[in-house]
Design a protein that fits this description.
Helix content is 49%, strand content 15%. With 484 residues, it is α/β, with parallel strands linked by helices. A hairpin with a 4-residue loop joins strand 14 and strand 15.
């Protein structure tokens, strides 16, 4: 999606000119290494006097946002898009629903928060001057902290508690509290080898759904049950004591935390960098159903990486299965070439290849000679021409001929390289002999493995269960069953 900027200047004010806003956005975008794809400008338009529906640039921006064309929006200040509270609130709702990343470039302009508190803040700030913004946020922070610490706003309560809107008090849900206590008792008994066992013992929740390991972990690690609450207020974690919520003693809670961490360790990110993994069979593996290339697919664990057809979900092969198999068959094939009249076979191949390359070179040289003759004629005509328009036309024709000549010369260079490649192929194959004693595990991280496969294999067709390896020089094939 696009990164865009919106600017608005007033009729009677030069304080926030379009140029000033553009310079501010440009500086900020450079610092953030972002490129502005499009600018929307409403010049000499009063946000107080002209409704948002009569501002063409703003309407175009909102339309593009609703069409999911925009991802990031640069603004100088909030008051550039609206000064009317209701209009600003309408725009804010659109930005929030589409999760637009809004970046303000004016100094001290507070960021946008897409939260209930943020919505309240945006409503307040819509009618306030920029210099009051930070004071509002700070006052709001202090109010939220005070309410949280005094118990007036405990935040989202965990399983076992509920908020009574009438009494403004936290209440215990007896049935749920008993289940929470049982969970802690079962955990500290140390009779379970996994959280799944405990889930089966607990049975169903009130909503008829089964308990999950994630449910148990969430309850066991929550300090609310020992009377401690934490709330994130504008990026700051605030902790407060709620002793009346304590239903588990600290020793039991700490022991349960330790046990649940062992039984269900927190999932870590994949232990490898996908972009750094080599897929040497990329573009060689072909789906036998649609003849499309299999694509490399991410996995949480490296051993589960696979090649998969995007058109047929059942057609996939694990990287750890297909690559060693193909490598071993390549070794066998290569060995058979070296032991079964390979040199005689290669001499014949090399002779035919050189013949074809030389024919290509001869054809290109004939075209180059013809182009040179045309150029000489054109240049001579241009030199003696006195009519200016006609002479200009000849110049255009000469430049076109030069471009065509350069194209043929480049083709000749490419064909000469083909001839060089043919001459080097025998040496390359001889060098491969030293690799034949290596195992796949010894060579799998070598970037040359991809070149090795490319040189020997035409393609590998598979339906996910079987594979057919088609070799080059000469065209041979072998069929395999993928037992895994």
């Amino acid at each position: 999606m696009k990164t865009v900027a919106y600017y608005r200047s007033s009729i009677d004010s030069q304080e926030n000119s379009i140029e000033m806003q553009q310079n501010s956005v440009l500086t900020c975008s450079i610092d953030m290494a972002l490129i502005i794809d499009e600018e929307y400008i409403d010049e000499a338009v009063s946000a107080r006097k002209v409704s948002l529906k009569k501002r063409p640039a703003l309407q175009k921006l909102l339309q593009d946002i609703n069409n999911n064309y925009v991802g990031t929006l640069f603004l100088f200040k909030r008051d550039r898009i609206a000064r009317n509270v209701m209009e600003y609130y309408e725009i804010y709702q659109i930005l929030r629903n589409k999760k637009i990343n809004v970046i303000f470039t004016a100094p001290n302009e507070p960021p946008v928060y897409y939260t209930p508190i943020g919505e309240y803040l945006e409503l307040i700030m819509a009618g306030m001057a920029q210099r009051e913004g930070e004071q509002i946020i700070e006052r709001l922070k202090q109010t939220l902290k005070s309410n949280f610490q005094s118990g007036k706003n405990p935040g989202r309560l965990p399983y076992g508690f509920k908020w009574n809107k009438e009494t403004k008090e936290i209440e215990l849900v007896d049935e749920q509290v008993q289940i929470v206590k049982r969970i802690y008792q079962e955990l500290v008994s140390e009779k379970y080898e996994s959280l799944k066992e405990l889930c089966s013992v607990l049975g169903l929740k009130e909503n008829g759904k089964s308990w999950t390991s994630a449910d148990i972990r969430k309850i066991a690690l929550n300090p609310t049950y020992i009377g401690l609450r934490t709330m994130n207020i504008f990026g700051e974690d605030v902790t407060s004591k709620y002793e009346r919520l304590s239903i588990i003693d600290r020793n039991t809670w700490e022991k349960a935390c330790s046990i649940v961490t062992v039984l269900s360790p927190q999932k870590t990110h994949q232990d490898y960098v996908f972009e750094q993994v080599l897929f040497p069979l990329q573009d060689l593996l072909i789906c036998s159903k649609c003849n499309e290339s299999l694509q490399k697919i991410k996995a949480r664990r490296k051993e589960n990486l696979k090649y998969k057809c995007l058109n047929h979900s059942s057609v996939y092969v694990f990287k750890s299965t297909i690559e060693p198999l193909v490598f071993e068959r390549c070794k066998e094939y290569f060995h058979s070439l070296l032991t079964a009249h390979f040199h005689e076979l290669f001499d014949r191949y090399e002779q035919n290849a050189k013949k074809q390359v030389k024919q290509k070179i001869q054809t290109i040289e004939e075209k180059v000679q013809l182009m040179n003759e045309k150029l000489i004629t054109k240049v001579d005509t241009w030199y003696h021409e006195t009519d200016a328009p006609y002479k200009e036309q000849k110049e255009i024709e000469i430049m076109a001929l030069y471009d065509e000549l350069a194209k043929y010369k480049k083709q000749k260079e490419q064909v000469i390289q083909e001839l060089s490649d043919v001459k080097q192929l025998r040496e390359k194959i001889s060098n491969y002999q030293s690799s034949m004693s290596l195992s796949y595990d010894e060579i799998k991280e070598n970037r040359q493995l991809g070149s090795f496969f490319q040189d020997l294999i035409q393609q590998v067709k598979t339906d996910g269960k079987n594979c057919e390896i088609i070799f080059k020089h000469p065209f041979l094939r072998t069929q395999e069953v993928l037992t895994s």
